[in-house]
Design goal:
The complex is a heterodimer of chains A (657) and B (413). Chain A is of the alpha+beta class. In chain A, 57% of the residues lie in helices and 9% in strands. In chain A, the strands form six sheets. Chain A has a six-stranded mixed β-sheet, with helices on both faces. Chain B is globular, with a radius of gyration of 19 Å. Chain B has three helices and 31 strands. Chain B starts with a helix and ends with a strand. The chains are: A alpha+beta (657), B mainly beta (413). Chains A and B meet through helix 20 of A and strand 10 of B.
Chain lengths: 657, 413
């Protein structure tokens, strides 16, 4: 959709500087969070130690007196003492299922990596132009419409959106890593699912599923969909993991996916069977994609081997696609087999093929300055291996969890007890666990910290999505700050469209926004007109105290009919605080000269505007600000940003009246 | 499917490209206008010869001509208007000032001057117009309420100052205005005209306007699925379909060759897929229409149809447009002769001329490189206007059949 994103260069120094400053400020907040967590950890450990010492003293007294001493859980019985179990073995009494742990840690690391990638300097402006828009461009109009909603939020608030994404993804990744069990872990799964859905819809345009040319080789059904899947699975009760139920589901799902992708890959007419479409002298679909990826800014050796692979595909397109179809179909069937050996072999083959695709087709996924993730192959392989582990380790864990077996136990500070330790008593509430279990305490605090990091990003992002006023940063990057002046606004005597005389002094008592517009301009003036209209809307109830005035900037097309046609075309005809003025050429030229507008005829036809400027004149007739209104790149983001800057400038003047 | 694709692609070339049109419509006893080149896609050109002397034509021949020529490429096009006149009978650039013209120019040229419309482009949503009465020295600006239709013959003017304009992407509205397009009023709409066609013509677009020999507004359009040519004439407050049936040869696909082949005639069966009026003009009491038809076998042809004062129609031999050819420009000269300029897939350009008697199409000698259009019968000469970069070269066809460059104009960029 035209104008979906800012045309400012992604490497614009103003934007990059603002982005880095925001990240640094937020990083300081993260440091503060860590400091607070460390303090909390210190305090809680002190409490735990005091409790332990008190219990030890009480136990010693009880031994002397023979009295029963309430345990740490308040129940009478054997003296309680703090028992710390080896990680992964407390307080549930059984280790985390291997498959679950593999997926949790794998996707935790992926989210952390993705969060780091979001910190690339091109992200604020490049995310929409180089990632979101191109992805959505191949999708149906309804998909583009949905994506446009999110893209607009990003374009209007590039700094907030880009920093938010960094912390949200870092936070989710850390959360998954530090919270292995229980509610914290399941909540992390929910967060992964929720944010994954947001990214899948707005960032990946539903993973390109509705676009032509979707292929497993290129990342279909979308990497983030796998993040969502794993997040949802982490919410499930661990018994489902332990029993192998989840693992079987995963493998069957992958099987069906591979079979579907095989059919898609084999579908005729999509350009995958040809290495080269000779009738049109262009490479086939796969070769074209590989060549495109090879052109991404990246180390030379990477692009060279991708180019070589592209040449190979062009020469042997049919054979390559046949291989891919056969492998996908075979893997799909193998994943659904009941024999573990077959599944295991399929896993191995899928890892090899997947890694080859990740390198040779997906190009690692994160080069180019705006890579947001390592594409779909790594997550998919993690899911496959995790599913395999979940199936093959299920029965093994059931044996290990037999209560007759010895549990690895580490005693807290030696309190002198020498008799065989009693079964560890699980604290009933999380408060008791916090008081009694240092490992649990640590993880709870770490998870809370991770949540705080997520909120550090999510809160500003939510506020930005509700803010209809674009950030001024884009316009400031393009046009600089408004110039503060204090000049007597030159007067002029022109005519309104109805022919009546107009003098600038007649608007005393109102703030005047003055500019010069060419009614038959093909680009600049229509853009500025829309910006003025937006700005008036942003002023809300204050717009009644402001008059937007344009003087025609064309010595040829300056009739009332021309101005009226312009007003109708730009939706200004019904704007109550809008005036478009004309007059004799000599009067117009005098007004142009007075305001430094060098409008003149070009040798090749159209008017040359000289400079695009907007003047803000206060209610007493003094010019207070001049804004550079250069309309380029004339997209939605820059227009909205300029409108916001102008509205803020006008409000500044209004407050001084 | 392939034929349909070929037919639609040919017509899409003609219809949807950036076009320039020149339609000179002299009314009644006024001397007919001169050659008209109607270009249908880039490069496009329009030229018209005013038979009478213009302010610039000081020569005894009184000959003058106009040409709209495209420069640049599809990424950065520009259009320039040239007029022929002056003591040296030389060409000069007279493009109307004050407005960008990358969308294209449409012109209607008269003995008394010219009206030029600027196609909307970029964010401009309506079309400025400009009128001159002194050969392009001075222009009076005007405004049309919306964009001109992107067809060659979207504008027509009378000597009395009236202007007909076809507006909207598919020529949905026809407006009429006074001189300088100061005020306009809606004359009719495509739907109203289509209603007049009944079942004889499935009118999908209006593509040409003109003032008829009696000064009545006339429109031409694209008829789908019938052999009836979509030419309509305003009668009272309504419209009447007056276009003839296409000749059988143009319909059945057994197209005559371009040179001296059998004349066409007779009623045609309803075999034609599409017919479109490319240009409509009045010429000494006759109504002349250049049309293109695409038969069901995918063959495209260009025909010149003429209606005499008595109302009977005659047709020229059909000009066969091969699949590898692209129609660049067409035109009608004041003596009734016509030409087509074709570009070929190899990059070459050829032109064929149909004489006034209309017996056969004759290919001109190889055209100068970069030829955008021709100007026929300018003071008895045949001229080629060729573009290279920002330079226009005017060449004249000599008796020996060789082209000689006579003028070079550099266009500001």
């Amino acid at each position: 959709m035209p104008g979906m994103s800012s045309g400012v260069a992604p490497g614009n120094s103003t934007i990059v500087s603002a982005f880095q400053s925001a990240l640094l400020r937020q990083a300081l907040v993260v440091v503060v969070i860590l400091v607070l967590l460390a303090l909390a950890w210190s305090v809680l450990r002190s409490v735990q130690l005091r409790n332990a010492l008190a219990q030890a003293a009480g136990a010693a007294a009880a031994e002397t007196t023979g009295a029963a001493i309430p345990g740490a859980n308040g129940r009478a019985g054997l003296p309680a003492f703090t028992v710390t179990l080896a990680p992964g073995h407390e307080p549930w009494g059984e280790p985390e299922p291997s498959g679950r742990r593999f997926l949790r840690i794998g996707f935790g690391l992926l989210w952390v990596f993705d969060g780091i990638l979001q910190g690339q300097t091109s992200m604020p402006l490049g995310m929409t132009t180089k990632v979101i828009d191109p992805t959505a461009a191949a999708s149906p109009a309804w998909v583009q419409h949905i994506v446009h909603f999110g893209s607009t939020i990003w374009s209007d608030h590039p700094i907030v959106a880009s920093t938010a994404t960094v912390w949200i993804q870092l936070g989710i990744g850390l959360w998954l890593l530090v919270a292995p069990r229980g509610r914290w872990s399941r909540a992390a799964g929910v967060a992964s699912l929720a944010w994954g859905l947001v990214v899948w819809v707005f960032g990946e345009a539903f993973g390109g599923l509705f676009a032509s040319g979707a292929s497993w080789l290129f990342g279909a059904p979308g990497a983030v969909l796998l993040y969502c899947l794993v997040g949802a699975l982490l919410v499930l009760d661990e018994r489902r993991w332990s029993s192998g139920q989840v693992g079987r589901f995963l493998l069957r799902a992958m099987g069906l996916l591979f079979l579907a992708m095989a059919v898609l890959q084999a579908w005729p007419g999509r350009g995958f069977w040809q290495g080269r479409v000779t009738s049109q002298s262009r490479p086939g679909t796969l070769a074209a994609m590989v060549r495109t990826m090879a052109g991404t800014p990246q180390p030379h050796y990477v692009s060279s081997w991708m180019s070589a692979f592209a040449s190979f595909v062009e020469a042997h397109g049919f054979a390559v696609n046949l291989f891919v179809v056969v492998v996908l179909a075979a893997l799909g069937l193998a994943f659904m087999a009941k024999r573990t050996a077959i599944v295991g072999s399929a896993v191995l083959v899928s890892v090899v093929v997947g890694l080859a695709d990740w390198v040779l087709v997906e190009d690692f996924g994160f080069f180019g300055g705006t890579g947001t993730d390592p594409n779909s192959m790594i997550p998919m392989l993690i899911v496959i291996v995790g599913g395999y582990l979940a199936v093959t380790r299920a029965t093994v864990e059931a044996e290990v969890l037999s209560p007759e077996l010895e549990l690895p136990i580490n005693l807290e500070p030696d309190l002198g007890w020498v008799s065989e330790p009693p079964p560890p008593e699980l604290p009933a509430t999380w408060r008791e666990r916090v008081r009694a279990r240092p490992v649990y305490t640590f993880r709870a605090l770490a998870a809370a910290g991770a949540v705080a990091v997520v909120l550090l990003g999510a809160a500003p992002m939510a506020a930005a999505s509700l803010n209809k006023r674009a950030d001024p940063i884009v316009d400031l990057a393009l046009n600089g700050f408004p110039s503060r002046v204090h000049l007597k606004a030159p007067g002029f005597l022109l005519r309104e469209q109805n022919g009546s005389l107009f003098s600038l002094s007649s608007l005393r008592g109102k703030v005047v926004v003055l500019t010069f517009l060419d009614p038959v301009s093909t680009l600049g003036s229509p853009v500025i007109a829309q910006e003025l209209r937006q700005s008036s809307t942003l002023l809300g109830s204050q717009s009644g105290r402001v008059e937007f005035v344009a003087v025609v900037a064309n010595s040829q097309y300056r009739s009332a009919a021309a101005l009226q046609a312009f007003d109708r075309a730009e939706g200004l005809a019904d704007m109550s605080n809008w005036l478009y003025l004309t007059g004799p050429v000599r009067h117009l030229m005098a007004a142009w000269k007075a305001y430094g507008v060098d409008s003149r005829l070009s040798a090749w036809g159209p008017m040359i505007p000289g400079a695009y400027r907007v003047f803000v004149i206060d209610a007493t007739g003094w010019e207070q600000y001049q804004l550079n209104a250069d309309p380029w790149p004339s997209d939605e983001a820059s227009q909205a940003s300029f409108a916001a800057v102008l509205a803020a400038t006008v409000q500044q003047v209004l407050t001084t009246q | 499917m392939r034929q349909r694709a070929t037919a639609s692609s040919v017509l899409s070339v003609l219809i949807t490209g950036i076009v320039l049109g020149g339609c000179s419509s002299a009314v009644g006893a006024e001397r007919p206008t001169g050659p008209q080149s109607v270009a249908l896609e880039i490069p496009l050109a329009t030229s018209a010869e005013a038979a009478g002397p213009s302010a610039l034509a000081a020569s005894a021949s009184g000959a003058s001509a106009w040409a709209i020529v495209p420069f640049g490429d599809s990424a950065a096009p520009s259009w320039q208007l040239f007029a022929l006149g002056g003591p040296q009978a030389s060409w000069s650039r007279v493009t109307p000032p004050g407005v960008a013209d990358e969308g294209g120019l449409v012109g209607s040229f008269l003995p008394t001057g010219a009206v030029v419309g600027i196609e909307a482009s970029g964010l401009l949503a309506f079309s400025p117009v400009a009128t001159t009465h002194d050969g392009g020295l001075e222009w009076s600006p005007g405004i049309l309420p919306t964009e001109l239709a992107p067809v060659p013959d979207a504008l027509a003017a009378t000597g009395g100052g009236g202007i007909l304009a076809l507006l909207g992407q598919s020529g949905s509205t026809i407006v009429e205005s006074g001189d300088n397009a100061v005020t306009t009023s809606v004359l009719t709409s495509r739907l109203a005209v289509a209603a007049a066609a009944g079942g004889s013509c499935d009118l999908t677009a209006l593509t040409a306007v003109a003032y008829g020999p009696a000064g009545q507004p006339m429109v031409g359009g694209r008829c789908y699925g019938s052999a009836r040519v979509g030419i309509f004439e305003q009668v009272g407050t309504g419209w009447e379909l007056v276009g003839p049936l296409l000749p059988a040869a143009a319909v059945a696909g057994g197209i005559t060759t371009r040179r001296g082949s059998s004349a066409t005639g007779g009623a045609a069966s309803a075999q034609s897929l599409i017919s479109e009026v490319l240009q409509l003009s009045s010429d000494a009491g006759q109504l002349v229409a250049l049309i293109e038809s695409v038969a069901r076998d995918g063959t495209a042809t260009v025909l010149r149809l003429s209606r005499s004062a008595s109302g009977s129609w005659s047709s020229s031999p059909a000009y066969d447009v091969a699949p590898s050819e692209r129609l660049m420009a067409t035109g009608v000269a004041p003596d009734g002769s016509s030409f087509v300029v074709m570009s070929h897939s190899g990059g070459s350009v050829t032109a064929d001329v149909l004489g006034a008697a209309g017996s056969s199409w004759n290919e001109l000698p190889a055209l100068p490189a970069g030829t955008a259009t021709l100007v026929l019968e300018v003071a008895g000469k045949t001229e080629s206007l060729a573009v290279e970069g920002a330079t226009l070269t005017v060449s004249v066809l000599g008796r020996s059949g060789a082209w000689s460059a006579v003028q070079v104009i550099r266009v500001p960029t």
